[in-house]
Amino acid sequence: MTMLRLSRADAVIAQGTLCVVARIDPHVVELRPLGGEAPPMSLSHLELIGQFNSGNFEVEYGYFGSRQAARRAMAGRSLLSLLSRAEQQLVFWKIDWCETFLAAEASGEVSRSDRSCSAFISELEKRVIEKMRQTTNGKPLPDVIFRPAPCRTSLMGWVRVWEKTRDPMALVKKSRFNGVNARKIGRDQETILQRKLADYLHPNRIFAPELHRAINAEIRGCNADAGSAGLPPMPEVSESTVRRRLVEIDKFELCAARHGVAEAKNRLGGYGAGLPVDVPLQRIEMDEWEIDLMAILAAGGHDISDTRLRDLALGRYWVCVAFDAATRSILALKLSKAPCVEDALATIWMAMRDKTAIARRLGCETGWVQHGHLFHVVVDNGAALVDTEFKAALADLGIGYSVAVAGVPKLRARIERVFRTLATMLMPLLTGRTFSNPTERGDYPSEKYTVHTAESIVEALVRFVVDVYHNKPHRGLEMACPNDAWTRLCTQHGWSPPLGQHRLRHVLGIKLDRKPGRHGVVVCGVNYQSEGLIRHFQRSGGHSLDIRLDPENLGHVSVWYGDAWHSVPAVIDGMEGVSVAAWEQAVFEIRQSNRDASRLRQDVVDRAFARIKELDADQRAWRRLGPINISAAEIRRAEAETFYGLDLKAEAEGRPIMDNHRPQIDGFLSDSIPPLQRPPARTASSSSPTDHTEHDDDEPQETWRFSDEDE
Question: Coil, helix or strand for 254?
Fold first, then answer.
């Protein structure tokens, strides 16, 4: 068994605690903590070797010896290697003098008497210079060689210290460890100075010359009182004295008093490696950022490219971002005019969807595949991100939630750095940027150069994120790019698929309420019906039900009845994957092309679905990211205007048709869509067997109406 060679003069530092070697024998080493009430530790030699190898313990040889004790008493924990090269050369020059004298003394050439030593100084100097020449190996001699030879008193002082300690630190100039050698001031002056320092530690942030003036003004006032009492006056203090006192103030306290605690924590707080996150989607950081770009704030429903609109509102958009900490990938971003909980929920929903189709539609060359089930979301204290509705939605989806400490952005350093990347890499490429502060902005006329709209900002953001940021080497990933990190970590740890689309719609869908009828429920002019909904209507009648709508997919809606959410499909075919925006635009175009028709047949609708798919791709690409939110109010507006009076009926052949019965309306679409008038009744002579617009009034028909208020 290997035995440790330790002595009672050695010390063992056990995880930061200084321990004395109290006892050592061939089997056990007993360590006793120095100071405190901690019990002693008894370890075998093998166990102690293991602690040394692991780095938990370390040994200080001779720590309690006289040599080390004298060194600590004089120089503390200072190291010779930390001194300047000139100071090091001076120390070893003194050692050469000591060693040369001791060698001459041993050979009987000199003694320590004043007469003998003083007479031998010149000979010692020659030997010291020759010794230094030999050690330099032909290199230039150090500057210390030109110093005058020491007197006998100095030399004997060096020799006595060197003989006792044999430690070079003992020959370092003692004034090196004496602190400030400045001229000291009196007690009364120091009292005034310390009292006035409180004025410097103030948010008003006075300067050092002003503090110096105030201190001397008070000293002069005290001198006036002392003169009347016959006492000697106090001398005024210099500005350098005041500045030295300011340097001695704790920097954190100084910054906190003058700039605030948050600024002190940000400026002087320590940084680490952050939380170790290796699994994709394990930790998602969310935050909102006001984009450094002046843009045109388009009002909902207005075409900002219309030259007739002269007075357009200008402002800055906000973007809400969801960021995966493990892969440094941006999972989602949502543009808005102001932060709101609806955008925060839309960002969560987007983070759990594959966005490759969106990226392709916006011209990206690589896919945006980063998505899946989120396990834990970390947010700051933004109002939208701490809203009760936001927290409730995450809880229903089984997603963890935590709020970082306010005023400490380093706790969300990864996503904060993303915003910095956008500000420094993307914003300089866009006209109309506002910069981070007025100093950086200078005279740049941001409002004058405003050219971008929500659509162009969305495209620029997505192109930058997908094609630039996700393919750019990242220092936090050891110069790997986020796309490669996503692929590697998903292969290593596995990928977590998101919850089903129905479950997501139950929790994150737009909140509506509808009264059911025999036809089911109507949302955006579309009937939704199921067997379970029919039975519920037969049992409970037409009381209002909670509805959840996915604005990107009108194929199903979520209806709450029977103490559970149920996915109810659309009655008409082809609605799967159709967004509200595309459906509204399609209905608008259908009516534009059928102004003179009293009925819109299902075959017309079927032919329009091809156009809907094209519209949907465009609308989905930017509306899912852009600032126009499909909210419950937006749905009601669309129903009141675009879908007003829109019904589906079944013809005799079984084909559903759309019927339009509506009065004159006033609204956004009223100038574009005139009221549709029913054509005059046909006479018997004008009837034809092939006319499919006539129906027998006695023939039962299934009807698709806007609502069932008249049921």
Answer: helix
Tell which residue, 563, 647, 578, 564, has the closest CA to residue 616. 578
pLDDT at position 88, please?
Answer: 87
pTM value? 0.63
Per the document, the length of the chain is 711
Say how many CA atoms lie within 13 Å of 562 toward its Cβ: 13
| Amino acid 559: pLDDT | 95
Give the closest residue to 514 by CA, choosing from 568, 564, 577, 576: 568
Token digits for 548? 């959840």
For 47, counting Cβ atoms within 10 Å of its Cβ (0-12 exposed, 13-18 middle, 19+ buried), the class is middle
User: Scanning the structure block, which residue is given the tokens 């791709």?
Assistant: 617
Q: What is the pLDDT of residue 643?
A: 60
Task: Look at residue 286 in the predicted model and tell me its pLDDT.
Answer: 94
- Tokens 């892969």 sit on residue: 327
From the list 208, 201, 200, the residue with the least C-alpha distance to 260 is 201
pLDDT for the residue 254: 92
Structure tokens at 41: 């530790």
CB neighbours of residue 412 within 10 Å: 21
Q: How far is CA 458 from CA 145, 148, 293, 335, 649, in A?
A: 72, 77, 12, 7, 41
d(Cα 344, Cα 73) in Å, to the nearest integer?
62
Say what the pLDDT of residue 478 is: 85
Torsion over CA: 353, 357, 363, 366 (sign): positive
Integer angstrom CA distances of residue 185 from 160, 237, 241, 245: 36, 8, 9, 12
Spell out the alpha helix ranges (H) of 2-65.
45-54
Task: Determine the Cα angle at 443 with ends 438 and 444, to 5°.
Answer: 90
Find the Cα–Cα–Cα–Cα dihedral 435, 437, 440, 446, rounded to 10°: 50
* Structure confidence at residue 622 (pLDDT): 54
The tokens of 195 are what?
């009292």
Q: How buried is residue 473: exposed, middle or buried, by Cβ count under 10 Å (0-12/13-18/19+)? A: exposed
Query: Distance between CA atoms of 520 and 533, rounded to whole angstroms?
Result: 7
pLDDT attached to residue 385: 92
How is the chain split among helix, strand and coil, in percent rounded to 5? 45, 15, 40
The residues near 142 (Cβ < 8 Å, ≥ 6 apart) are 89, 93, 132, 136
Q: One-letter amino acid identity for 182?
A: A
DSSP for 433-463, written as a single string: B--SSHHHHTT--TTTT--B-HHHHHHHHHH
State residue 456's pLDDT score: 85
Per DSSP bridges, beta strands 314-315 and 295-296 are: antiparallel
> CA-to-CA distance for 466 and 453, rounded, in angstroms?
20
Do 519 and 649 form a contact (C-beta atoms < 8 A)?
Answer: no
Query: Which tokens hold the place of 503?
Result: 């479950």
Which strand (E) or helix (H) includes residue 39?
A: none
Q: Give the pLDDT of residue 392.
A: 94
Q: Which segments of the chain have a pLDDT < 70? A: 1, 36, 70-78, 138, 175-183, 272-274, 296-313, 593-631, 637-711
Region of 251 (left: φ > 0; alpha: ψ -120 to 50; beta: rest) is: alpha
pLDDT of residue 625: 62
The whole-angstrom separation of Cα 533 and Cα 525 is 18
Looking at residue 112, what DSSP letter applies?
S
Please say whether the dihedral angle defined by the alpha carbons of residues 287, 293, 297 and 303, taken in this order, is positive or negative: negative
Helices 85-106 + 152-165 axis angle, to 10: 90
Judge contact between 110 and 120, C-beta under 8 A.
Answer: yes
Per the DSSP assignment, residues forming a β-bridge with 322 are 286, 332
Question: What are the phi and psi torsion angles at 23 (to 5°)?
Answer: -155, 140
